[in-house]
Structures are given as C-alpha cells and as structure tokens.
Amino acid sequence: MTDFQRKNTKAARYSRYGLPHATIELVDDEPGDPADNEVLVAVEATAVMLNDLYCISGKPGFERPLPAVPGNQGVGRIM
C-alpha cells in the first residue's frame, strides 16, 4: 500500500444507534500493518444488508460495540 493510499483510506462508521442517514459518517481511517497471517484488502464495493440496518438502529439482539463499521460482505483487492 502506498503512502497516498494509506492517507486516503475512508470508513463508513457509526458511533451511536439510530437511522442510517443520521448516524453513519465517512471518516479517515489509517489501517495498520497486517500481521504475518493477515492480508490488507482494499474494499471496492460492499452491500448493506438487513442485519446491518438492525445493528445500526440498535435493535435488541443486534447491538454491537461502538464505534462500528457496518457490513461483512464485500469485493476488494488484496494489497
């Protein structure tokens, strides 16, 4: 990963529960170096699924520790 790519990494993150349009923020996110058994993936597309909406809204049984990044499916390139 180049310095330019590392400095221009963004994440969609929420720090409170509520409606997606009111809670999700695009923030700068500088990834750390991967461990020996890990890879760094540049995500190019990801879907927002129903369970993501439940997590974002804080529906009982779907709460996640905050801040959180929604989504767990995506398409990307190994850097």
Structural overview:
The strands form 2 sheets. A two-stranded antiparallel ribbon has the order 1-2. Strands 3-4 form a two-stranded antiparallel ribbon. The chain is built from 3 helices and 4 strands; from the N terminus they run αβαββαβ. By secondary structure, it is of the alpha+beta class. It has helices at 3-7, 20-23, 50-57; strands spanning 10-14, 24-28, 41-46, 74-78.
- The overall pLDDT, averaged over residues, is 89
Shape: elongated
Fraction of residues in β-strands: 25-35%
Q: Which stretches are low in confidence, meaning pLDDT under 50 for 5 or more residues running?
A: none
Radius of gyration: 14 Å
Oligomer: single chain
- First-last Cα distance: 6 Å
The largest sheet, given as strand count, sense and whether it forms a barrel, is: 2 strands, antiparallel
H/E element order: HEHEEHE
Q: What is the helix fraction of residues, given as a range?
A: 10-25%
Helical segment count: 3
Strand order of the largest sheet: 1-2
Helix/strand class: alpha+beta
Counting DSSP E segments of at least 2 residues, the number of strands comes to 4
Task: Give the tags.
27% strand; elongated; 79 residues; 4 strands; two-stranded antiparallel sheet; alpha+beta
Question: What's the layout of helices and strands?
Answer:
Layout (H helix, E strand, L loop, with lengths): L2 H5 L2 E5 L5 H4 E5 L12 E6 L3 H8 L16 E5 L1
Antiparallel strand pairs: 1-2, 3-4
Summarize it.
By secondary structure, the chain is α+β, with helices and mostly antiparallel strands.
